[in-house]
Every structure is written in C-alpha cells, then in structure tokens.
C-alpha cells in the first residue's frame, strides 16, 4: 500500500525533467521532421525525401558515414583494449600519470586533435618537412590526411580514450590475484587475456564502443578540419545543404536520416554486444 501511494508523487517528480527534455530536444526535433515534409514550393509533400534519396551525393554520404563510423569504432575498440591493458597490468614508470591524462584528453575538442595531426602529417607538416630536408624531394610521402584514411586516423586517435576510460574503470575492479594465479599455473599471456581479462572487459567495451559509434556517426569537426576531398558524411551534407545551398527541407531530410541511422546502428550494436557479453 505504501508503494502504491508513493507512485503519484514519483510521477510528479518526473514531470519537470520530461518537460525540460521535451522543450530542449523533442520540440526542435519535431520541427526538423516537420520541415522535412515541407518543400519550398509550399504544402506538405514527400518530394523532399524523393529528391534526397534520388541524389547520388546522399547515397555516397550515407555509405561514407556508416563505414567510417564502423571502422573507427572497431579501431578504437582494439587499440583502446590494448592500451588500457598495458596501463592496467604492465607496471611502468608514469602509468598513473598516463591514466590521469586520459581524463584530461576527454575534454579536448575534436578539431584540436585534427590540427595536431595536420602539424605532424600535413602537407607542410613536420614529417614531410624532415623527409624533404633529408631526401631533397619536392614534397614528402605523407599525403593521406586529406583522404578517408586521414579522417579514420583522426577519429581513432580522438575517440580511443572514450573506450579506454570505462576499460580502466573495469580493470580497477578486477582482482589481480586472478591474473597472478593464472600466470603461476602456466597460462600464457594470450590465454590470460582471452579467459581472464576479456570477459571482465566486455561490458566496458560495449559501453565505450556504443558511445564511440554514435559520436562517429555524428562527427563534423574532424571531417571539416582535415579538409578531406571527396569525403562527405551525413553531417557534412546537412551543413552543405543548409548553409551553402539554402536547401532547408533537404537538409532536414538528411538530418532525419542521420538520426534514424544513429539510433538504428546504436540499437544493433547494443543487441550484438549484449549477446556477445552473455556468452560464457
């Protein structure tokens, strides 16, 4: 009886956050969806969707967005797991400082990391400068930053700490005696990682990977600052249609598709990671 009488009070407490969420997120999203059905000619029509879906630029942007996000997420998961395992289980001087730096790294804007890569691997960056000074060539060999591979490198570099942070938290809860016992029984490092460390890391990998996937699907600054030619993602296409072409219905259509793709791939990733994590 006590729990029943408390239900109305809990409902009242839920009203303010739901109202704020509706005002700040759901209402603007509803306006975007509404605009996507209103062509410049007036009225309500599916013509904006037909025009966007018939565009080769949209199909290319959709494919580029999906494969870049999937590849970056896979790279972050692998690299993040390796680096977090080294920091957590391989003692070396400065390990704690590195772990603290990861927390600071998470606050960096994405374009800052991209600029750092440009200073190193850009056309006039340090790596190409050293190459030209040594070899006397007119230009250096590092010309990949303005390609999809440069975008992929920048995304993996920037988003890997978002995987490492939950992994380090999970490893801090792991009893080190399990690793020591497995090692004393003659288990090789690969087997220890596979049978002791990896099962404990799966929930953290799922959390970090899902976050990275959603962020990569909606990343704008990295693609913009690399200046990658021919690399157009859905967020870049929204920018181009809204700002450069003044095609607001088309931009809203792409934005709606971007939201649906993000939610769909996020849901698929969570289902797959949950099933993988449930396996013994």
Give the end-to-end Cα distance, rounded to a whole number of Å: 41 Å
Q: Work out the radius of gyration.
A: 24 Å
What is the count of DSSP helices, taking H or I runs of 4+ residues?
A: 12
Q: Roughly what fraction of the amino acids lie in strands?
A: under 5%
Look up the CATH topology. Answer: MetI-like fold
Note the run of SSEs as H and E.
HHHHHHHHHHHH
Task: Give the helix proportion (percent range).
Answer: over 70%
Please report the first level of CATH classification, the CATH class.
Answer: Mainly Alpha
Number of strands: 0
| Overall spatial form | globular
- The chain-level structural class is mainly alpha
The CATH superfamily name is MetI-like
| Annotated CATH architecture | Orthogonal Bundle
Q: In the residues, how many domains can be counted? A: 1
Q: How can the largest sheet be summarized?
A: none
Summarize model confidence as the mean pLDDT: 82
Low-confidence stretches: none
Membrane topology: Multi-pass membrane protein
Family: Belongs to the binding-protein-dependent transport system permease family.
Subcellular location: Cell inner membrane; Cell membrane
Protein name: 2-aminoethylphosphonate ABC transporter permease subunit
């Amino acid at each position: 009886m006590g729990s029943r009488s408390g239900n109305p009070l809990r409902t009242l407490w839920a009203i303010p956050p739901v109202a704020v969420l509706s005002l700040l997120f759901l209402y603007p999203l509803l306006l975007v969806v509404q605009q996507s059905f209103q062509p410049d000619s007036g009225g309500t029509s599916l013509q904006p969707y037909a025009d966007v879906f018939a565009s080769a630029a949209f199909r290319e942007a959709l494919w580029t967005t999906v494969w870049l996000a999937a590849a970056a997420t896979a790279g972050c998961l692998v690299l993040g797991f390796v680096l977090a395992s080294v920091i957590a289980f391989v003692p070396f001087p400065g390990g704690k400082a590195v772990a603290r730096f990861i927390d600071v790294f998470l606050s960096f804007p994405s374009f800052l990391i991209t600029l750092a890569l440009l200073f190193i691997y850009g056309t006039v960056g340090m790596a190409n400068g050293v190459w030209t000074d040594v070899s006397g060539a007119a230009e250096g060999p590092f010309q990949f930053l303005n390609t999809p591979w440069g975008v992929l490198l920048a995304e993996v570099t920037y988003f890997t700490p978002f995987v490492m942070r939950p992994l380090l938290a999970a490893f801090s809860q792991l009893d080190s005696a399990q690793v020591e016992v497995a090692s004393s029984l003659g288990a090789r490092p690969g087997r220890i990682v596979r049978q002791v460390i990896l099962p404990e890391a799966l929930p953290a990998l799922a959390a970090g990977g899902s976050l990275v996937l959603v962020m990569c699907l909606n990343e704008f600054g990295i693609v913009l600052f690399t200046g990658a030619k021919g690399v157009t993602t859905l967020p870049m296409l929204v920018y181009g249609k809204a700002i450069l072409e003044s095609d607001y219905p088309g931009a809203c259509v792409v934005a709606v598709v971007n939201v649906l793709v993000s939610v769909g791939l996020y849901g698929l990733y969570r289902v797959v990671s949950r099933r993988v994590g449930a396996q013994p």
